[in-house]
Automatic annotation (TrEMBL):
InterPro entries: SNase_OB-fold_sf, Staphylococal_nuclease_OB-fold. It comes from Alkalibacter rhizosphaerae. The keyword NAD does not apply. One of its GO terms (molecular function) is hydrolase activity. This is Thermonuclease family protein. Residues 42-171 form the TNase-like domain. The chain crosses the membrane at residues 12-31. It holds the Pfam family SNase.
Length: 173
């Protein structure tokens, strides 16, 4: 004889209720709530169609986006050899962003002199990409006022990478 649980006048087998509870608990532990980080609400969503290099990508709408506060070593500059750690930075950003939806936040300036959108970039889980690239040594911190909202945070990320010898900071001559 199967036992039933009464939920709002619907009867479900007890075993089904237990399975649903276990799945719900497991999803909560894994952080799989199907939602994006709430701090991303109100940010501009963009699909990353192609990564150009370690600090620039192209959206699904063919807009060029430049990450604020970072400068990755060059890897695709015409008529020049790639800079040390440039190809690694480009490959890492490609793996991190290409084919994914990101969330973009503007500071003061909308575009730079090359008409690229200037943005802070976040992944759906809330990862601050600009900071992550600095922390892992894939870029250097640069400041172009008036876009300085996260200047101290980004500088600190670069300093941690330097002291730990991460990425380009671990290169020897």
């Amino acid at each position: 004889m199967t036992k039933y649980v009464n939920l709002n006048k619907r009867k479900l087998p007890l075993w089904m209720m237990l399975v649903l509870m276990v799945i719900s608990i497991a999803m909560g532990w894994a952080g799989c709530d199907g939602q994006r980080d709430p701090s991303l609400a109100g940010m501009e969503e963009a699909y990353v169609k192609r990564v150009v290099d370690g600090d620039t990508f192209i959206t699904g709408n063919d807009e060029r986006v430049r990450l604020i506060g970072i400068d990755a070593p060059e890897s695709v500059k015409p008529d020049t050899l790639p800079e040390p750690y440039g190809p690694e930075a480009s490959a890492y950003v490609k793996e991190l962003l290409e084919g994914k939806t990101v969330y973009m936040d503007v500071d003061v300036s909308d575009t730079d002199r090359f008409d690229r959108l200037l943005r802070y970039i976040y992944l759906a889980d809330g990862t601050f990409v600009n900071e992550k690239l600095l922390e892992e040594g894939y870029a250097r911190h640069v400041v172009f006022p008036p876009d300085v909202a996260f200047e101290a945070r980004l500088r600190d990320a670069e300093n941690r990478a330097k002291s730990d010898g991460e990425g380009l900071w671990g290169l020897t001559d």
